[in-house]
Amino acid sequence: MTEANSTAPLKIEPRHIRWRRRIAWWLMALLVAPLMGSAALVAARGTVHWSTASRAATGQAPNPVTTHEAVIQAYAARTWGWRGVFAVHSWIVVKKAGADQYTRFEVIGWRQYYGRPLIKISHATPDGRWFSVKPELLTDIRGPKAAELISKIQSAVARYPWADQYRTWPGPNSNSFTAWIGRQVPDLGLRLPVTAVGKDYLGDSDVFSVPPGGRGFQFSLGGLFGILAGREEGIEVNVLGAAFGLDPSPLAIKLPGIGRIGWR
Question: Checking phi first, is residue 65 left (phi over 0); if not, alpha (psi -120 to 50) or beta?
Fold first, then answer.
């Protein structure tokens, strides 16, 4: 008897299969893993009942009684409950020169269930905690520039195109509203975080615009897929509403659920 010395030929994986696997791993690293980390952070923080959650001031807004100059600020805080794994809620406040209180502009989705306008304009605490979560100050403009921009913000609020529409994902929602104001008033230089899910929503038909920061280029398909490059944002890629990117100034990476990691 003779023994066969032949060996089975090695199978070489097709190139397109290798690329698909690499893309899958990158998506896992850039999308799934950060969201899992965010879920762990939210779970560790815990969630209080909405009825007992704090709305107390956080000391980030100047006292309107002792501050004569005009003020514009934008804030964002993690949403309540499981949505906080993915997203923040954002709002804008203004104070005219000489005024003794702030005006706060925001969209709140649950108001639609009670027949109330989605856009809430109030004199609520400008820097108040959002269901006990301390908000992050995104924009702080004071003096003559703020005085000039306040009327433009009020005009943008009045022209908001989705005042009677709300969808948590992919928009229009509270972050779509804040982003709209940023696009209409580019001198705000608004820096919405990647966790502001809904900021990339441009409508069901529009696909091109400037980013919320007001300078640059954005392409978005219904807030679900897109890319943007802006002076305030850097470069961001949106996949199913979850965005990741790179901010060169100051240098940082931006991950879904987590947000910005790097220098401030």
Answer: alpha
Helices 144-158, 174-184: axis angle to 10 degrees equals 120
29-78 confidence digits (pLDDT tens): 667 767 776 667 666 676 777 678 899 999 999 999 999 999 999 999 99
C-alpha Rg value of the chain to the nearest Å = 22
Burial of 51 (0-12, 13-18, 19+ CB in 10 A): exposed
Average pLDDT over residues 167-176: 96
pTM of the model: 0.86
Predicted pLDDT of residue 1: 47
Tell me if 181 is assigned to some domain. yes
Is residue 1, in this structure, part of any structural domain at all? no
Question: Are 184 and 70 contacting, i.e. CB atoms less than 8 angstroms apart?
Answer: no
- pLDDT, average across residues 15-20: 69
Query: What's residue 230's pLDDT?
Result: 96
180 CB burial (10 A radius; 0-12, 13-18, 19+): buried
Quote the tokens at residue 55.
């709305």
Residue range(s) defining the domain that contains residue 142: 22-262
Q: How many C-alpha atoms does 106 have within 13 Å on its Cβ side?
A: 25
Spatial separation of the C-alpha atoms in residues 146 and 148, rounded to whole Å: 5
How far apart CA 156 and CA 160 sit, in angstroms, is 6
Length of the chain: 264
How many structural domains does the chain have? 1
Task: Please tell me whether the peptide bond between 126 and the residue prior to it is cis, using omega within 30 degrees of 0.
Answer: no
Q: Please, where are the H alpha helices in 91-217?
A: 144-158, 174-184
For residue 170, the SS3 value is: coil
